[in-house]
Amino acid sequence: MGKSIAIDGPAGAGKSTIAKLVAKELGFIYVDTGAMYRAMALYLIRQGIDRNDTLQIEKACEDADISISYENGRQVVLLFGENVNDYLRTEEVGNMASMSSVNPKVREKLVALQQKLAAQKDVVMDGRDIGTVVLPDSRCKIYLTASSQVRAQRRYDELAEKGEKADISKIEADIIERDHRDMTREHSPLKQAEDAVLIDSSELTIEEVKNAILAEAKKRL
C-alpha cells in the first residue's frame, strides 16, 4: 500500500495547483481526480447526452475508457487514448462534471481506478470525496477551502489571462450553486473528513498553503 495525501475542498479552492506542488516536492504521483470526472463529462457531451438524463449517463459511462499517464513528468488524461487535457477546463465541461459526478455508476467506475493507483503508488489526490470515500484510510487528509468571493476572483483572473470575457458576479453565483450541489448530493457529498486538517487559503499565498500541507505530511506519514 502506497502513502497518500488526500486533499478535498470546493471548486476553485486551489486544490489542483497545490496538490501538484506537494507531489513534486515529495516525489509522489499527482492524481487529478477532478480531471478524470471532467474527462467523463467531456465524453458525455460528445455523445450528445443531456446532463439531466440519468439513464443515458449510466449507460454511456459503462463504455467510457479513461486513464492517466505521464509524459515528460506531466499528467495526461486519456479518453479512448486521446489526450484531452486541453478540453477539460471549460465551463460547459465543469457544469456537466458537477451534474454527472453525482451518478453512482459514474463514481463507481472512477473510484475503482483511483483506489488502484493509490494502492500501487505514493500519491497526492485531490477532489470532493477523497478523504471520506476514495481514500478513507489515508493518514494525511486536508480540507482546502476559500471564500466564494476569492474563488470567483481567481477564476475571473484565469479567464482574463486567456483573453476571455467574464462576469465575476455570474462566476460567483455559479460557484455557490456548485457548492450547494456538491455538498447536498445523495452520494459522496463534499464534506470535511473528521480527521482532516482545515486550511483556508483565502488570505494565504500558494507557497504558504504548500508549506502547511508539507508540514502535516511530515507529521502524519
What does this structure look like?
This protein has helices spanning 15-26, 33-46, 54-61, 91-100, 104-120, 130-134, 148-161, 168-184, 206-220, and strands at 4-8, 29-32, 66-71, 74-79, 82-83, 123-127, 140-145, 197-200. With 221 residues, it is an alpha/beta fold. The chain has 2 domains: 1-28 and 122-221, Rossmann fold (3-Layer(aba) Sandwich), CATH 3.40.50.300; 32-121, 3-Layer(aba) Sandwich (Rossmann fold). The strands form 2 sheets. It has a 5-stranded parallel sheet with strand order 2-6-1-7-8, with helices on both faces.
Q: Which structural class best describes the helix and strand composition?
A: alpha/beta
Order of helices and strands: EHEHHEEEHHEHEHHEH
Radius of gyration: 17 Å
Into how many domains do the coordinates divide?
A: 2
User: Which strand order does the major sheet show?
Assistant: 2-6-1-7-8
The share of residues in extended strands comes to 15-25%
Low-confidence stretches: none
Q: Major sheet, described briefly?
A: 5 strands, parallel
CATH class of the largest domain: Alpha Beta
CATH third-tier fold name of the largest domain: Rossmann fold
Distance between the termini: 13 Å
Number of helices: 9
CATH superfamily of the largest domain: P-loop containing nucleotide triphosphate hydrolases
Helix content: 40-55%
Integer average pLDDT = 92
Architecture of the largest domain in CATH?
3-Layer(aba) Sandwich
Inertia-based shape: globular
Extended strand count: 8
